[in-house]
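Board notes (copied after class):
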Amino acid sequence: MRNAGPIGSPTDPFASVPLPTSGVSRRPRIEALPPGVSRDIFGPQDGQEPRPAGGQAGQSGQSGQSGGAPPPVAPQPWPMKDKEPSPVFGSPPPSPPPSEPEPPRRRRLLPGLAALVAVLAVLAYVVPAMLMSGAVLRGTRVGGVDIGGLTVTQAADKLRAELAPKLAKPVVVEIGDKQDTVQPDEAGVELDVVGTIGEAPSGFPGPIEVWRGLTGTTDIKPRITVDASQLTRTVEGLAESVDKPAREGRVTFSGLTPKAREPEDGVLLDREDAVTRIGEAFLAGRGTVALNLRPAKPVSTPEGVRAAETRAKRAVSAPVTLTLGGRQAQLTPAVIAANLTYAPGDDGSLVPRFDAKAALATVENTLVDAAQQPRDATYAIVGGKPVLVPARKGRGIDADRFARDVLGALESGTGRTVPVTLASVAPEVTTDQVRGLGIKEKVAEFSTTFDCCLPRVTNIQRMAQQLDGRIVRPGETFSLNEATGRRTAEDGYVVAGQFVGGRMVQIVGGGVSQFATAMYNAVFLGGFEQVQRTPMDYYSDRYPAGRDAALLYPSVDLKWRNDSEHGVLVKTAYTGTSVTVTLWGTKRYDRVEAVESERRDPTPFRSETSSAPGCVPSAGQQGFTVDVTRVFHQDGKVVKRDKKVTTKYRPQAQVTCTATGR
């Protein structure tokens, strides 16, 4: 191997093995094989029988016995193990098989399919969205009424026609062991159509809304409003029918006999709570609601009443003698009894109250000459003109001191002679106070009529008597409730029917709203400032629409302000069928006009049958809304215009009284 050149790696692993030159065999002699390579791959060696295909010696021997030549042996692959074979003679490891190239046609189809899907998706949204736009979303329902696909105007009309009647369900109120029914119109319940439709999806819908419009429904809860002021008036009517005020102990006289009235507990409707509960019941759609009554306790005690009754018997046991100089007069037991009462004090006892002015009216002329008595300044209407009657100072008996002296004599039980003294008495209204007020002409007048001979007529006339001659000074605010006070039997008022909160109730002083209406219209036409006025619940054709006034002590009042520079004299007159209020002063305007709008929003009335005691039949009157604007004219032109005043009247039910209730 000396001087041998470099040997390149043969491609055949056995190319470098020398072949034998003898004639014995042409097969190569294998000196060594790589590990794991069998010699059998080269066929049988010298002196070795070919191995049968089965590879077992026994089978080979049997074949030789049969005398058949053995089949040629097919070359066998190298045996493989579980792991990759080691590289032979430094051969490089096999390369991974190349990936199969993507077919060109698929690469061209995929983008086209994606674009087609996107276009179809856009069309699936845009087409129905365009069809749904400009209307309420399909499938939208309000209280079971389907308004989907309608315009806003169409939806509003459908809700008014179909849903509003469904919401007109009354609420039954339970007050103790009594029940009453509050109708939707009595509570001012209305369907807020605009607010309800505002909750519904409309316009150009989004993808989610399109899907919901195509596959589902959208339920909207109807929005309902309750007129709190109207409901408050209704609750006041309920209260008047169920209230049982605490009765105070009291001692009065029937002739000369003391009559004791024991104190009693009472109950009153919780008005604020009732307004809240009834309003919530209408909004929630509940049919029945229980209202709360709260206890009312009297101040007086039974012990105080019994003690006062004993004192009252002693008070009328004999007359009281009044002396003034050489003159005498007697308060008879009958006069004492007519002007003496025992009313609750602060500690539960009853204290005496003596009407000294009324008692003096029976005896003062005996003790004091009429020419000496004081006189208030006032006006008398003579020949259609106000004439000033000046005030006059005088001498008279001091009423407050007289009352203290008489009560002392009645309570002491010892002496019943009371000396009285005259004093200089100034008039309550002086001439100077009324002289410069500019009361010189008629400013306004208004009359209303009524049916004769009803109990309410007595109340109207009594209120007219109380207010006749009242002077309202410049800048003064006049309150009708403050001027007359609580209407009581002691003041000459009687029990009569009056609508309170839509209900006819029997109260002392019922019917005086008619006098309030007469005064309101006189003030309206006189151009004076309106401060507080509550319209009646129902329209009556005996009054101008939008120009009536309710009155209920103490909550419902009529107030107006004399905003002129002159005084106003209130004069009243009445007959058996009418009452008139006239205002005298100085006119500021040639004419004050009431501009009345067309009546709108008519509300139909319901029909009902009643067997309740005292049922009053009614023909029924539809409700409506009206505007009234006051316009002031001077020198042939409009100089001022008030803001319009809107009055909404309830529908008055048609009531049929059954035979048992009449």
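Comment from the instructor: The chain is about 30% helix and 25% strand. The mean pLDDT is 80.
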